Amino acid sequence: MELIKTRRSIRKYKETPVPDDYTVKILEAGRWAPSGEDAQPWRFIVIKDRKKIETLGKLAGAGSARRFRAEFLTRKLFDRLPIPDEEKRKRVYRKLITGEVSLFMKDAPLLIVVVGRRDCWDAVYDVSAAIQNILLQVHAMGLGACWLVAPVIDVRDEMKVKELLKIPEEYTVDAILAVGYPAESPKPRPRLPLSEIVFYEEFGEKWPILLEKTS
Questions:
Q1: Does 141 lie in the same domain as 60?
Q2: What is the arrangement of strands in the sheet containing 42-47, beginning at the earlier edge strand?
Q3: Do both 135 and 215 map to the same domain?
Q4: Whether residue 166 is found in the same domain as residue 71
Q5: DSSP 111
Q6: Which candidate among 66, 67, 78, 184 keeps its CA 20 to 30 Å from the CA of 32?
Q7: Which of 175, 214, 178 is nearest to 194 (CA)?
Q8: Residue range(s) defining the domain that contains residue 173
Q9: In whole angstroms, what is the distance from residue 71 CA to residue 23 CA?
Q10: To the nearest 5 percent, what fractions of the chain are helix, strand and coil?
Q11: What is the tens place of the pLDDT at every residue in 139-191?
């Protein structure tokens, strides 16, 4: 539980490269994730080449910029992410609509591109389980990571990634994980209490045992 509670998304990394034996252990954690019908649909591409990392990082920044700019112009961003303090709001929104929120990926010493088999019904869930295993293993080893979909969530960007990495058509690119030694130590954000997110027997019904624990 301590490992789970202290894990954070890390967006600033030291220049120190991640040793190959560490990378193998990280991928081994992903390999042991559960999967429907034991399909094991995940595939992992290890990226250390600086030019490829910079290209993928720029795709991530551009992908985020497009998405958040559209939300900003339609004012959906104001509804979804209301920030009362004007200065903070400007700072956060600027980071989002410029794509800076994801551009950091180009500075990571290691990227793991996570690919799933298109013919597997449960691939998106299986791949997510593998990613969570990887994130926890990364944290356990004193490294930091961030799970990004910005460079692949738009099909146009996914096509660019597939072309760059020669990924066959029968696979989908589901995420890219940036990994490295942390150059920051953000505190974990607070979570909603169980009494607000757990129901008993049917949706909306509070579980008395949880109410007792929070009273």
A1: yes
A2: 42-47, 110-117, 171-180, 144-148
A3: no
A4: yes
A5: E
A6: 184
A7: 214
A8: 2-180
A9: 36
A10: 50, 15, 35
A11: 999 999 999 999 999 999 999 999 999 999 999 999 999 999 999 999 888 89
